[in-house]
Design a protein that fits this description.
By secondary structure, the chain is an alpha/beta fold. It has eleven helices and seven strands. The protein has a seven-stranded mixed sheet with strand order 1-3-2-4-5-6-7, with helices on both faces. Strand 4, helix 3 and strand 5 form a beta-alpha-beta unit. The longest helix has 19 residues. It starts with a strand and ends with a helix.
Length: about 250
Amino acid sequence: MYYDEYGDKNNPTILLLHGAGALDTFSGQYGFFDQYHLIVPHLPGAGKAVHKAYEPKKVIKELIELIESEFLHKGKIGVIGHSLGGQIAVMLVSKRPELFQFAVFLSAWVNSSPKTVQTYCALAGLSVKMLHWKWLVRLQAKYWNYTTGQADFMVEYMERMTPQVYRSFFAKTLDLSKLPGYLEVTVPMLAVCGAREVKDMKISLKKLAQNPNCRTVMLQRAGHDFPMRNARQLNPMLLQFILAITKICQ
């Protein structure tokens, strides 16, 4: 699995799992967490893995192998995931909680509705056609506060996005009620949702709160893309949560 790295390798490691098709979801966090070693895997449908369809079990297996082979020599790691990456983070911590010091789920959609999934899948062809429009992708990158280099790379890999890959983001959506182990996870967790997000996302936040070790927050004046658009509001909250966990574990 290909991945990008930010920060000093000797610092504590945080695994950053980006949203569907958006490799640099955490561009607003790369510099903020300068006391950490940040790992950004290229998940299926983005970056150098844009040609790969999303298969949850395969991704979980690859990520666990990556963590165990590369990063555990420093101890447990943290994981932060947004949207599709948030779903993956939920699955990771449920399957192998002993690997993680903490977990953060940002807009993790775990309340899959068959009707909603069907709608998104049906729109895959049109959505991908629009993602091939360079000017539109650049406009989106600017809206998300990407650097020029990040925008250029997104334009380049989005040209290779296919309807099949895009459809897989939604066809394999996580249903938390069918995920064994989540309610028994004792890892400190934080789940965040934007106040301006859709109803399904807010229901997902409530479902994640069923685990007493998962604190939930509704981020005011924020939409689904708040890691990029509301970094100044989000970052201090994340750092406060992480530092509190680190202090308890010392």
